[in-house]
Amino acid sequence: MIRTPNLTRPKSLEDLLDPPLIAKIARLDYTSKKIFAGKLKGERRSKKRGESVEFADHRPYVEGDDLRHIDWNIFGRLDRLFLKLFLEEEDLALHVVMDCSASADCGQPNKFRFMQRLAMALGYIGLVNLNRVTVSAMGGAIGSDEAAGARGGAGEAGLGSDATSPGRSLTPSVLAAVRDLRGRRRTHDLARFLCSLRPAAAVPFTECCRRVALARRGKGVMVVMSDFFIKEGYETGLRLLVGRGYDLFLIQVLSPQELEPDIAGDLRLRDIEDGDQAEVTISAPLLKRYKANLAAYCEQLREFCARREIGLLTVRSDMAIDVLILDYLRKRGILR
Amino acid sequence: MTWLSPMLGIVAASIAVPTLVILYFLKLRRRDVEISTTLLWKKSIQDLQANAPFQRLRRNILLLLQLLALGAALTALAQPQIRSAMATGQKHLILIDRSASMNATDGAAGSRAERVSRLEAAKAEAIRLVDSLREPGIFDQVGGGEGDQAMVIAFDTTAKVLQSFTGDKALLRSAIRAIEPSDSPSSIDEAIRLALAQAPRDVVIETRPDGTESRYERPPKPVGTIHIYSDGRLPDVGRVDAGREEDMRFHSIGTAEATNIGITSLRAGRAFDNPSELSIFVGLQTTERSPRTVDVELRLNGEVASIRPVELPSATIEETGERKGRMAPGVGGTVFRLERPEGAIVAVRVSAPATDELSTDNAAFLVAPPAKRLSVAVVTRGNLFLSAALENLPLARLDTLTPEQFEQARADGKATVYDVVVLDGYLPTTPKDAATPLPAGRYLVLGAVPGTPAGLVDKGKLGPAVMVDWSKTHPALRGISLDALNIGASRPVEIPPTSAATVLAAADNGPAIVELTTPEARAIVVGFDVAESDWPFDVSFVVFMAQAVEHLGDDGAGVAQSVQPGGVYAGRLPRGSAEVRVRLPDGATAPAGDPAPDGTVVFGPLQRVGVYQMSWRGEPGPSDGKSGDRAVRPFAANLLDAAESDIGAVGTLELARQRVSAEADSRGKTVRSLWPWLLLAALGVLLLEWFIYNRKVQV
Questions:
Q1: Has the ipTM of the complex gone over 0.90?
Q2: How far is CA B226 from CA A120, A237, B95, B126, in A?
Q3: Taking CB atoms and an 8 Å cutoff, what residues of chain B touch A267?
Q4: Which pLDDT tens digit goes with each residue over A212-233?
Q5: Residue B571, domain extent
Q6: Residue B515 belongs to a domain
Q7: Distance CA A49, CA A59 (A)
Q8: pTM above threshold 0.90
Q9: A-B contacts at Cβ under 8 angstroms
Q10: How many domains is chain B built from?
């Protein structure tokens, strides 16, 4: 809840992804309930019968089919024309969207750091499985040196107007992104990008979602990480992200302190993003009411998601990444 | 409920309560905390404000609790007290009977195992009363309030203020605890007088317009509550003249059923004709409801001389007379007759049963003098009757002198060999500036009146007279009747107010026989000339002469020298005695002070029964013993009081103008100060407040 004191930002891949975790998650791959049509042939089975080596099925020949796919052996035995169908393996677009608002830079453990590490792990799984990995940071500012490196490595970064302007140590932007990374060797590029991110003050969530929605290509899995404490409302933004062939999955990251406030006394609470103030005297009824409100808020989000086939997972920022990935995300069918 | 310092509480409240409320009105200084989002918090605050109509109240519950705690503390500051209605009076007078009957061991009702004397029970009850007195508050130095006050008076035959009015309970308790039992009979009259003397008096000085002042005293206000702790065995209670408005409380100590067997009289005497025979008369009394035979033991100088069983009748309830319905004790007695010319210390002990509650009167003591013969000189110019009357007395020496011979003997210093000098119509010459009418010595004066200074006023010879009244108890007149006496030429005297003379017999025209006591001389003066009356022909004349000579010759060591506890021993020592000391029955020694010029010495009041021994440096008297270089004279103190020995407790005191019943609930309730409880309550409320504060703040 409160801004994390004495926070050390991750500086390299090792900070984000330690080798034991790599060993655990290397075997995982993404799955999607929706049908994906990748642009490149990847390691992913497509529902589209394709030209891979893996046999899928036979079907009767109809006029117009490619003669190259006729199973001549069956024709020899049955004197009928059947087409041999192969599973086509295709790549999957993985789009990880991070909420880089100042509110994420709170909690103990730090929510933003948690999101960085989770993004790295998810990205790594994507990269290893030759998926197209895009990581967007909503409202993230990029430290100048890291930004340069990230741009150099990723080829492109940032749609925001200020994102590319050099000479500033911290360049706030509406949306910073690293796009279409593929393959294990891009792991470091991804790590560099994630390490360069710094939470900015306020994020226009709907605007960011619109940009993300417009910028994405193809089909795939989109993971949005945020606390979803958005004053303007998350509904419009999420509605923009739903559909267009993307399997949307939300991970709501809450700090333990948000769930169980540990503040006491007569306080003036100041919103870290917009400076809004609330004078409270912490009391048992108030805390009870707060928890009820929090539960209701989360329930509302869950209902919103369920109605639109959006996957939702609420996690605490002190949860172990490997447990989250190996257990929770697998159970929810996002990984296999 | 009373408040000891209400003003202090009000002043403190008027400061503290507004301060506390003002503190609450001060704007709260809030701590700034940056949080991720205020979204949920704002909503929560709104929800709470919308949902809880008593939210304002709930926010102020801490204030309410603090006000409650403060209120309790302030009430404690005002020092409320709850106390019984009994202790409403401002002043209490605690009168504790310490007479002999209070030594009875039935103080603790019911339990015979632990025998507590009535005095101890009375003291304990009085201390309970003291405990129930309203205490002055701690802050009364500021507020000016006052607690109850009490004074302690202990009485037997005399009353003594042991502690004057004070509110200091420790002083009162120690004064009560210091009361020692005595063996004296009881007399409440003086105690009540002493108590009533404490009544506040208002002296009003009025100045009239013409400038003259008049002073008058308002009638005294009631002195306060008089608490009498006694068994009610107070013979003079009917004389107590306390006003009806006086608040008297009688705390009856002891049980009405208490029984006692005691010696009520003890006397020793020697017959005129046979002085070597000693008779000892013992009177006994029992309050038991059944007849009983007791053994009476006689010891002479500590050795058992005789034991005699005495049958005592049961006590009866009187059916007639003034004391109707009251218990009349059974009385009995015995006489020991012994051939004993020498003196002895006589101790009589009665073997009391186990139910006997009072042991003080189970023993009595007496100092029997040795058989003594007097030396008498008759100074006369010839009087047949005198010689005839005195001749047959067992005297050591009887000289008949003329006045000239007597004066010569005085001048030679030989007159002191005579114990008694009978002066017949003659007075020894005294220097003109002498302070006393008679020289030192003891005289029976017949037909003459020792004049001033400090003597009598001679009214001269008058006509015939008859006797109208005489003292029947005086040793000189005991047992004789002067009814038939006709005086031919009376010579009445007048007793000036400054004179130490008492009338023994009065004729119809004035005192006829007078006893005159001066510091040096003692005399019985018969003013008229017996030769001019028919008295010498009456047997009473002989008896009078014998008794008068014996009485005058008695130098203080006589048989009658038994003193009641509470009284004083007054005796006469030979001239030149010094360093007079008295050994008490318990073995301690007390100085008795120097004797007066005529040898009179006074010691007392005596507290306990038993044999006292007075010793002095100097010559012993004719009947005194000698121990080393000091002369010794024993004397005895005995209760010998039928009223004291009748120890059944009385429930009602019949005063002259008031009837006081014993209090049914004589136990005072203790004053309860509430402030410790209030402070405790304040502490409890503060704890509750702290708990609620913490509950509000934490989850």
A1: no
A2: 101, 98, 7, 12
A3: 30-33
A4: 888 877 778 899 999 898 888 8
A5: 562-637
A6: yes
A7: 11
A8: no
A9: 111
A10: 5
